[in-house]
């Protein structure tokens, strides 16, 4: 039995001139660098998300429906980082009938509030910058072509985040920013 296949753009490494040839990844790099990483949570969700049909799958498996609620949840998920930088290292993007879909892997480097605990090590990104923490994760995005959308006629209609918050939580506990009781213990 023959298998149906779909052409895919496959890239290893950070965004670059090659990823910018894919409209969805050119858009994604711009949104991440200019809105997500600098924590511009006051950006209207409707600039980047579809509205009622948007779905966010959080790392704990919770599904959040609606662009406005989902954008608030993303701000809460990444809000503990005082600064951050997302560096993708592998992505696969395909065209779909609605736009594009991308499954990718990335490292999110971040700094944390509070004073470092004794012996706390830094993580270094491939550009030599040191950070308090590194989270590696997998992500799935659905990009919808929407004529008139603020940025390049593209909006996200689905985001799935598969990251381990353990490194962030453990360092926040060691720094005294979080207590075990904050975690339900």
Helix-strand string: EHEEHEEEEEEH
CATH architecture: Roll
Number of helices: 3
Pick out the low-confidence regions.
none
What profile does the largest beta sheet have?
A: 7 strands, mixed
Number of domains: 1
CATH class: Alpha Beta
Separation, N- and C-terminal Cα atoms: 53 Å
Estimate the global geometry from the Cα principal axes. Answer: globular
Helix fraction bin: 10-25%
CATH-defined topology: Nuclear Transport Factor 2, Chain: A
Number of strands: 9
Order of strands in the sheet with most strands: 1-4-5-8-9-2-3
Structural class: alpha+beta
Overall pLDDT level: 95
Strand residue content:
25-35%
Rg, Å, rounded: 17 Å
Characterise this structure:
The chain is α+β, with helices and mostly antiparallel strands and 185 residues long. It has one domain (9-183): Nuclear Transport Factor 2, Chain: A. It has helices at residues 23-36, 67-78, 166-174; strands spanning 9-12, 55-57, 63-65, 83-95, 99-111, 123-124, 130-131, 133-145, 154-163. The chain has a seven-stranded mixed β-sheet. A two-stranded antiparallel sheet has the order 6-7. Strand 8 (133-145) and strand 9 form a beta hairpin. The chain is globular, with a radius of gyration of 17 Å. It comes from Cladophialophora chaetospira. This is SnoaL-like domain-containing protein.
């Amino acid at each position: 039995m023959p298998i149906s296949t779909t052409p895919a753009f496959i890239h290893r490494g950070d965004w670059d001139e090659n990823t910018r040839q894919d409209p969805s990844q050119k858009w994604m790099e711009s949104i991440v660098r200019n809105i997500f990483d600098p924590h511009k949570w006051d950006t209207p969700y409707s600039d980047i998300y579809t509205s009622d049909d948007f779905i966010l799958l959080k790392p704990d498996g919770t599904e959040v429906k609606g662009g406005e609620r989902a954008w608030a949840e993303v701000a809460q998920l990444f809000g503990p980082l005082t600064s951050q930088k997302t560096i993708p290292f592998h992505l696969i993007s395909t065209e779909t009938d609605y736009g594009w879909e991308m499954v990718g892997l990335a490292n999110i480097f971040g700094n944390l509030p509070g004073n470092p605990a004794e012996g706390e090590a830094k993580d270094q990104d491939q550009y030599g910058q040191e950070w308090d923490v590194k989270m590696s994760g997998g992500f799935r995005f659905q990009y919808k072509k929407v004529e008139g959308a603020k940025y390049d006629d593209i909006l996200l209609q689905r985001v799935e985040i598969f990251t381990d918050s353990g490194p962030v939580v453990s360092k926040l506990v060691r720094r005294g920013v979080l207590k075990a009781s904050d975690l339900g213990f």
